[in-house]
Amino acid sequence: MKKIIIALAIVCTIGLAFFGYRTLKENARNNIPGIAHGNGRLEATEVDIASKLAGRIDSIMVNDGGMVKKGQVVALMQTNVLSAELEQAKAKYQQSITAAASAKAKIEVKIGELEAAKAVVKQKESNAHNAKKRYERAQQMLKTQAISKQAFDNDETIYLSAEAELAAARASVKQAEAEVNSARADAAGAEANIQAMKADIARIQADLDDCKLISPINGRVQYRIAETGEVLSSGGRVLNLVDLTDVYMTFFLPEGTAGKVKIGADARILLDAIPDTPIPAKVSFVASVAQFTPKTVETQHEREKLMFRVKVRIAPELLKKYIEYVKTGIPGVAYVKINPEAQWPEFLKTKAEKATPSK
Fold this sequence. Notes:
- By secondary structure, this protein is of the alpha+beta class.
- The chain has a domain at 81-210: Helix Hairpins.
- 47% of the residues lie in helices and 25% in strands.
- The protein has helices at 2-30, 80-143, 149-210, 255-258, 316-321, 351-355, and strands spanning 35-50, 55-60, 67-68, 73-77, 212-214, 219-224, 231-232, 237-254, 266-271, 279-286, 291-292, 306-313, 331-337.
- A six-stranded antiparallel beta barrel has the order 1-8-12-10-9-13. Strands 5-4-2-7 form a four-stranded antiparallel sheet.
- Helix 2 runs antiparallel to helix 3.
């Protein structure tokens, strides 16, 4: 019986010692001078790939969990209607070019008619001038009865007829000038129609290009929201991507501590999955307004305490090296320097820092 009691006492002692060791270790990690910490989960920026225009999905080239590269075509929308519209627009464009050429040729014709009308005016001015001189002489000769009244009347008729013909010729010039201006306006309208058709072709081509859904980021497919053959409205989502070059952890700090955190301050992230591998990060955001701690966040203080949201971001160049291994949603602890002179303890030093002897 004594042996059992002694064995139980030894087990209890070892257990208490182990619990005490873990408590001391935990306290040491949670009370580092000049360094604050908080619990959070690894997150990343999400990007939705959506259809600009309403239409049917022709094909989706990626699956859930697949990696995608920036500029990669991930899905295609049907383009048969747009392709037909493009061919129609191109045909109308050719028609507008022909119409513009015809309008320009018409200008030349009308300019020729104007020049001819001006030549006629000059001829009629000469005839009218001669007729006037003859009429004036006839007036003088009639006074001395050098000519008969009939001859005078004939000269007067010729003069009045020449004046009328001159007026008609001048009116023809005005009409010809108006026709030239009208032809020029038609040509300008034809040129404008060419530009309008060019813009229409460019618009349709842009819509065709938008039927190729392209990834704007390097990341991973989180969800296939739609499937091949489904008809989407304008803005209908097809895929949800996670940007694995923009990964961060959000956590909360109390008022007194958050005020000491600066944007750009050094930080370290310890994930539960790899607790022995600290990940370098930088503070990218500190909330300017306090809020109550969300229920999903564990803190050592009472829930009623106002907290400030802090975000630490992992460097994109580091993420690119291990982009295929990055996972979001993993819980962990973020440590941030509130004193720039503070030194990272051993468990928060990177391999490179451990390999470099401290000065």
